Amino acid sequence: MITSKVDNVELKSWKTILQQSYLSWDDLLKYLKIRAEDVSGLNILESSFPLRVTKQYASRIEKGNLEDPLLKQVLPITLEERFNPLYSIDPVQEIGTKQQPNILINKYQGRALMVATGSCAIHCRYCFRRHYPYSEKIGEKKISSALDELATRKDINELIISGGDPLILDDSKLEKILEVASSYSHIKRIRFHTRVPVVFPERVTPGFLQTISSYSPLLVIVTHINHPNEIDTNVAQAMNLIRNQKIVLLNQSVLLRGVNDNIDALLRLSHKLFEVGILPYYMHVLDKVAGAAHFDLPRSRAQLLQTKLQELLPAYLVPRFVEEIPGQPSKTSVT
Ligand code: SF4
């Protein structure tokens, strides 16, 4: 039986814990015992996409290690400021195709994606929505009107709830979305895209589990884990608690230079995902978002890594290496 730390935090309020996240690079580096002057190209200026790291995630970063693959995902560096004409603020052309401002995006046949919040528990430097115009507040009114629109869209059979990170929403707000969407007979599945159980497992409270358990036959949770070191015992416990609700767990990753672009990290990631009950789903090559070019890799490297994984793993542990090409009816395989 799992009795976890995450079981016990609800009384303390997950929001209180989240407020204690690192919001400045100097506090984070102090905790990690790294001197700022040793980090080449540290971006010390205020950014429109500022540093945000939960204490739980920071605890998995190796102290004193500038090359830590988790640290690289969250530390702002000056390379983000370098202009590259091939990288844009809207790499997958979502801003132009949204059906309602900031809320409902209908990219693929049968599926609609709801941007339910602009907030996240962590800021990932390579995020393809790092420039998304969340500033128009995504409040209950907009969510309600998106749900109203969904009622009329009989061509949609799957609702994808994304963000930001949707699990940042209160249980009551999640419950409302789930209750309404699941009442539509044409909605057969509801999928969450989230990094919260990974970067902030304290959010997986008994109240949250109760909220999702009522809808479990419809639910799929797609986590976002890029490196095996992101999975510690707290994450494993959180995943186990979710899995106990009979919810399908899949994972998508982003292939990132200097983070997981080697066969050892990818092999360990697949093995660890399976150990905690998650199947690898997609490995995305980087969406060409402005500010993240230094994480990108040649497609040939992605192809080589996929081939090696296929040689070394059973097919169900090999994620599909894909890229998102705006206007295409589905993700495109890199092979
Ligand atoms: S948690 Fe997801 S949406 Fe938020 S910054 Fe990271 S990748 Fe982007």
Q: Can you walk through the features of this model?
A:
This protein has 335 residues and is an alpha/beta fold. The chain is built from twelve helices and nine strands. The longest helix has 14 residues. The mean pLDDT is 92. Iron/sulfur cluster binds next to loops.
Major sheet details: 9 strands, mixed
Number of domains: 1
**CATH level-3 fold name:** TIM Barrel
Taking all Cα atoms into account, the compactness measure Rg is 19 Å
- How far is the first residue's CA from the last residue's CA? 43 Å
Give a topology summary.
Elements: H1 5-8, H2 14-19, H3 25-31, H4 55-58, H5 71-74, E1 104-105, E2 111-115, H6 140-152, E3 158-162, H7 171-183, E4 189-194, H8 196-199, H9 206-213, E5 219-224, H10 233-243, E6 248-254, H11 263-275, E7 279-284, H12 299-312, E8 320-323, E9 332-333
Parallel strand pairs: 2-3, 3-4, 4-5, 5-6, 6-7, 7-8
Antiparallel strand pairs: 1-2, 8-9
Bound molecules: iron/sulfur cluster.
